[in-house]
């Protein structure tokens, strides 16, 4: 009992030091003392290994357990879902009926995994099972995850039907519905949902603003887009590439050249999408020389490397201007930057 307490303290305190080292030390101590099969300790090990990014170690502990309980299954399924292993999470979900029945955390992890894989059939089966066991009425946590799953799988009607049953939908649900409605050719309703989210006291995040601004972009609704931009400025989201790129694209496609220029300058950590969006904006309005100058700025800055889209845009600008020498320079830089596959892709894009 004393050893169990010591090992639990080591695991719980691992976040303040080297979690992986502390977990491995605790694991070794448990094995040496003959407690390696203890369910309580093994569950702690699974969680701590997973939080250290050592999913394989967590799986080994799980696989060596002679007995498992609900916590064991829930810990590993959640770890797999959060570590980019959705197939494994669903495989474990299908197997767990032997030892334990799923709880709300397991269902939520399964829903996230179905969403990641766009596994609609598996998601619908999981939804039916959760409903049968009474988790949708008892846990908005599960229902919110199912809404997001359906929307990401492109089954918008089913997702919206579940959403309407929620007494307290959370931000994740609203974001999923706003994006889903936009993709399902109901963008105006998506904007209404964004407004309703704010009226209900939820604070939109970067995903909310990106989805709503994307709708404004599609609708060419610059007035609403500018209002959303102002809101994003107040909470500092406009300078992030994730939101700033959408605003930049909106202004560029709406022909608001000055606004687009200011937006490009204000994005603090420009990524490839930021540069590509602005290069494309210049090309779209016939500013091919400006597009080439921007390409040169991107190369000279040497912070974000040009990708296939960037090279294709630059080559296209050279073609429009009949600048053979510039085109050869761009092509040469492309060859130096990419392997043969990358060159082929870029050239195919250009042609």
From TrEMBL:
GO terms for biological process: RNA modification. InterPro entries: PPR_At4g14850-like_plant, PPR_rpt, TPR-like_helical_dom_sf. Transmembrane segments: none annotated. It comes from the Eukaryota. The keyword Transit peptide applies. GO terms for molecular function: RNA binding. Keywords: Repeat, Transit peptide. PPR repeats lie at residues 38-72, 170-204, 271-305. PANTHER family: PENTATRICOPEPTIDE REPEAT-CONTAINING PROTEIN (PTHR47926). This is Pentatricopeptide repeat-containing protein. The lineage of its organism: Eukaryota, Viridiplantae, Streptophyta, Embryophyta, Tracheophyta.
């Amino acid at each position: 009992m004393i050893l169990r307490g010591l090992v639990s303290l080591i695991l719980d305190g691992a976040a303040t030091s080297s979690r992986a080292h502390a977990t491995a030390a605790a694991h070794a101590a448990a094995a040496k003392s003959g407690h390696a099969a203890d369910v309580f300790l093994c569950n702690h090990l699974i969680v701590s290994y997973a939080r250290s990014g050592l999913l394989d170690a967590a799986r080994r502990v799980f696989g060596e357990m002679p007995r498992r309980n609900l916590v064991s299954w829930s810990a590993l399924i959640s770890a797999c879902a959060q570590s980019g292993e959705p197939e494994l999470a669903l495989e474990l979900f299908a197997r767990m009926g032997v030892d334990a029945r799923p709880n709300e955390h397991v269902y939520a992890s399964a829903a996230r995994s179905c969403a990641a894989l766009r596994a609609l059939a598996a998601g619908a089966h999981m939804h039916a099972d959760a409903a049968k066991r009474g988790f949708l009425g008892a846990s908005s946590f599960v229902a919110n995850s199912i809404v997001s799953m359906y929307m990401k799988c492109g089954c918008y009607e089913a997702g919206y039907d579940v959403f309407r049953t929620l007494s307290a939908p959370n931000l994740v649900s609203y974001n999923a519905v706003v994006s889903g409605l936009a993709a399902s050719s109901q963008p105006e309703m998506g904007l209404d949902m964004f407004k309703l989210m704010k009226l209900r006291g939820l604070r939109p995040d970067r995903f909310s603003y990106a989805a709503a601004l994307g709708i404004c972009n599609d609708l060419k609704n610059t007035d609403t887009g500018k209002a959303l931009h102002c809101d994003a400025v107040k909470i500092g989201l406009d300078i992030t590439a994730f939101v700033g790129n959408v605003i930049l694209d909106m202004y560029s496609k709406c022909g608001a050249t000055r606004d687009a220029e200011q937006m490009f300058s204000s994005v603090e950590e420009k990524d490839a999408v930021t540069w590509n969006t602005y290069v494309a904006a210049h090309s779209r309005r016939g500013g091919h020389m400006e597009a080439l100058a921007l390409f040169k700025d991107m190369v000279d800055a040497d912070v974000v490397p040009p990708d296939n889209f960037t090279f294709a845009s630059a080559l296209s600008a050279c073609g429009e201007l009949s600048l053979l020498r510039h085109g050869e320079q761009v092509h040469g830089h492309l060859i130096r930057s990419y392997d043969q596959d990358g060159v082929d892709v870029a050239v195919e894009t250009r042609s």
